[in-house]
Amino acid sequence: MGIEIERKFLVKGDGWRSLGSGTIYRQGYITTENKINTVRVRLIGEQGYLTIKGKTTGATRAEFEYPIPKEDALFMLENLCDHPLIEKTRYKIKQGELIWEVDEFMGDNQGLIIAEVELEQENQAVELPNWIGQEVTGNLQYHNSNLVKYPFKKWKDEHR
Amino acid sequence: MGIEIERKFLVKGDGWRSLGSGTIYRQGYITTENKINTVRVRLIGEQGYLTIKGKTTGATRAEFEYPIPKEDALFMLENLCDHPLIEKTRYKIKQGELIWEVDEFMGDNQGLIIAEVELEQENQAVELPNWIGQEVTGNLQYHNSNLVKYPFKKWKDEHR
């Protein structure tokens, strides 16, 4: 079993772009109706993953991830997941001891860029790079599973 | 990817009991709100399994099953699955070329005994043993995922 402790931020400016290279992620959710647990199918290049996540408490969430065949992931993305799928480019950027994952969304979520950092403990000190903006940890609106039904392009101006 | 083609029947009498030995299955569902796909966690002895099933069409259903560590299964059964869990003894009974799986339910589903047979094709001829009763293939009420919320003991007499 895994525990995911993660803080999430909006990104400002382009200062992060030169710091890492990007990989395309394609993912979908087998269940979004039940808002507590999510079941995610993800394809990164030739490798599929199936991920179960439990309830979020603070910045902590139980997470179980299993590699699955690409063909299984493709079938599930096409036939079992809610559409539209989430497509994004993920940049991994090392800053000091931490790895930041910057997700630049495409499609209906174009314009949204989110940075995540995985921690060992909830109260761990984090030095924020200057391209990090507002913290959105725990804000369900920014959960990728919610970006399927309520993509960024539908958000009202006051939420931006 | 797998395709599950399965016919399901009620069981009558005890003629099947001497024909195979039983193993205890403990399972739960991470999602039952979305009635099309199910995500099942199962523990058989020391081995956990995670299973994704798609929409049922006739007797056919897309199915993906992955072995997972026992500890993962235990955590998910306890913390992520809807309760009560499904507990049953499964008997595997060979009759001719076919393997029948007879599930004898416990707990809130005690009294319910279902036999399933997996087929290569939907129209495959099946010789029914004399302990096989009414066919319930495609009847959602008998899906294990629905037995969590609507267990057998709550069914009205007219459904029995």
Automatic annotation (TrEMBL), chains A, B:
Source species, domain of life: Bacteria
Catalytic residues as annotated in Swiss-Prot or TrEMBL: 29
Domain CYTH: 2-149
CDD domains cross-referenced by the UniProt entry: CYTH-like_CthTTM-like_1
SMART domains found in the cross-reference section: CYTH (SM01118)
UniProt xrefs under InterPro entries: CYTH-like_dom_sf, CYTH_domain, NeuTTM/CthTTM-like
Gene3D superfamilies with a match to the protein in the record: Hypothetical Protein Pfu-838710-001 (2.40.320.10)
UniProt name for this protein: Adenylate cyclase
